[in-house]
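Possible regression after last week's pipeline update?

I re-ran a chain I had predicted before the update to compare outputs. Posting the input and the new output here so someone can diff against the archived version. Not blocking, just want to make sure nothing changed silently.
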Amino acid sequence: MPRAATTSDAFNAVAEPRRREILNFLSLEERPVGDIVDSLKLEQPSVSKHLRVLRETGLVNARRDGRRMLYRTNAEAIRPLYEWTSIFERFWRQQLSRIRDRAETKEERGAESDPTRRGGKHDPDPSGN
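New output (post-update):
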Protein backbone atom coordinates (compact mmCIF):
# COMPACT_ATOMS: atom_id res chain seq x y z
CA MET A 1 0.00 0.00 0.00
CA PRO A 2 1.52 3.37 -0.96
CA ARG A 3 2.37 5.79 1.80
CA ALA A 4 0.25 8.96 2.08
CA ALA A 5 1.91 12.20 1.11
CA THR A 6 3.22 14.29 3.98
CA THR A 7 1.17 17.20 2.72
CA SER A 8 -2.12 15.35 3.13
CA ASP A 9 -1.65 13.32 6.30
CA ALA A 10 -0.98 14.73 9.77
CA PHE A 11 0.66 11.50 10.94
CA ASN A 12 3.20 11.56 8.12
CA ALA A 13 3.76 15.27 8.65
CA VAL A 14 4.73 14.78 12.31
CA ALA A 15 6.93 11.79 11.47
CA GLU A 16 9.66 14.32 10.63
CA PRO A 17 11.52 15.30 13.85
CA ARG A 18 12.08 18.95 12.86
CA ARG A 19 8.36 19.43 12.25
CA ARG A 20 7.68 18.04 15.74
CA GLU A 21 10.22 20.52 17.12
CA ILE A 22 8.43 23.35 15.34
CA LEU A 23 5.04 22.20 16.67
CA ASN A 24 6.48 22.05 20.20
CA PHE A 25 7.92 25.53 19.81
CA LEU A 26 4.62 26.94 18.56
CA SER A 27 2.53 25.16 21.19
CA LEU A 28 2.66 27.97 23.73
CA GLU A 29 2.35 31.04 21.54
CA GLU A 30 2.13 32.41 18.04
CA ARG A 31 5.54 33.17 16.52
CA PRO A 32 7.15 34.55 13.36
CA VAL A 33 9.49 32.48 11.19
CA GLY A 34 12.55 34.36 12.47
CA ASP A 35 11.87 33.26 16.05
CA ILE A 36 11.60 29.64 14.94
CA VAL A 37 14.85 29.90 12.96
CA ASP A 38 16.73 31.53 15.85
CA SER A 39 15.41 29.34 18.64
CA LEU A 40 15.65 25.99 16.88
CA LYS A 41 18.90 26.78 15.04
CA LEU A 42 17.46 25.73 11.69
CA GLU A 43 17.96 27.34 8.29
CA GLN A 44 15.17 29.69 7.20
CA PRO A 45 14.40 27.84 3.93
CA SER A 46 14.10 24.58 5.89
CA VAL A 47 11.73 26.16 8.43
CA SER A 48 9.60 27.61 5.63
CA LYS A 49 9.41 24.21 3.94
CA HIS A 50 8.35 22.51 7.17
CA LEU A 51 5.82 25.24 7.95
CA ARG A 52 4.32 24.80 4.47
CA VAL A 53 3.78 21.07 5.16
CA LEU A 54 2.34 21.81 8.61
CA ARG A 55 0.00 24.44 7.14
CA GLU A 56 -1.15 22.16 4.31
CA THR A 57 -2.00 19.40 6.79
CA GLY A 58 -3.81 21.95 8.97
CA LEU A 59 -1.55 21.42 11.99
CA VAL A 60 -0.43 25.06 11.89
CA ASN A 61 -2.35 28.23 11.10
CA ALA A 62 -0.76 31.39 9.74
CA ARG A 63 -1.86 35.00 9.78
CA ARG A 64 -0.33 38.14 8.41
CA ASP A 65 0.67 40.90 10.83
CA GLY A 66 1.93 43.75 8.68
CA ARG A 67 4.88 42.35 6.77
CA ARG A 68 5.32 39.31 9.01
CA MET A 69 3.61 35.95 8.97
CA LEU A 70 2.78 34.58 12.41
CA TYR A 71 2.31 30.86 12.98
CA ARG A 72 0.51 28.94 15.70
CA THR A 73 -0.57 25.36 16.26
CA ASN A 74 -4.11 24.32 15.40
CA ALA A 75 -5.36 22.35 18.39
CA GLU A 76 -8.34 20.90 16.52
CA ALA A 77 -6.11 19.41 13.82
CA ILE A 78 -3.75 18.01 16.46
CA ARG A 79 -6.62 16.33 18.34
CA PRO A 80 -6.63 13.12 16.19
CA LEU A 81 -2.90 12.69 16.88
CA TYR A 82 -3.50 13.17 20.60
CA GLU A 83 -6.43 10.75 20.66
CA TRP A 84 -4.47 8.08 18.83
CA THR A 85 -1.42 8.41 21.09
CA SER A 86 -3.71 8.37 24.15
CA ILE A 87 -4.48 4.73 23.38
CA PHE A 88 -0.82 3.91 23.95
CA GLU A 89 -0.63 6.08 27.03
CA ARG A 90 -3.44 4.05 28.60
CA PHE A 91 -1.71 0.81 27.55
CA TRP A 92 1.58 1.85 29.19
CA ARG A 93 -0.15 3.03 32.34
CA GLN A 94 -1.81 -0.40 32.62
CA GLN A 95 1.51 -2.13 32.02
CA LEU A 96 3.29 -0.01 34.64
CA SER A 97 0.46 -0.60 37.10
CA ARG A 98 0.79 -4.38 36.59
CA ILE A 99 4.55 -4.20 37.13
CA ARG A 100 4.07 -2.17 40.32
CA ASP A 101 1.42 -4.62 41.59
CA ARG A 102 3.72 -7.60 40.92
CA ALA A 103 6.64 -5.89 42.66
CA GLU A 104 4.50 -5.05 45.69
CA THR A 105 3.15 -8.62 45.86
CA LYS A 106 6.67 -10.02 45.61
CA GLU A 107 7.86 -7.63 48.34
CA GLU A 108 4.97 -8.65 50.61
CA ARG A 109 5.74 -12.35 50.08
CA GLY A 110 9.40 -11.71 50.86
CA ALA A 111 8.49 -9.83 54.04
CA GLU A 112 6.25 -12.70 55.21
CA SER A 113 9.04 -15.24 54.81
CA ASP A 114 11.79 -13.06 56.32
CA PRO A 115 11.85 -13.35 60.15
CA THR A 116 13.80 -10.08 60.45
CA ARG A 117 10.95 -8.14 58.83
CA ARG A 118 7.57 -7.33 60.32
CA GLY A 119 4.71 -5.71 58.48
CA GLY A 120 6.75 -5.48 55.30
CA LYS A 121 9.34 -3.18 56.92
CA HIS A 122 12.81 -4.04 58.13
CA ASP A 123 13.04 -4.10 61.94
CA PRO A 124 16.63 -3.30 62.92
CA ASP A 125 16.03 -4.51 66.51
CA PRO A 126 14.84 -8.17 66.44
CA SER A 127 13.75 -7.89 70.08
CA GLY A 128 11.09 -5.38 69.03
CA ASN A 129 12.44 -2.62 71.30
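Follow-up from reviewer: compared with the archived run. Strands lie at 31-32, 60-65, 68-73, 117-118, 121-122. Marking as no regression found.
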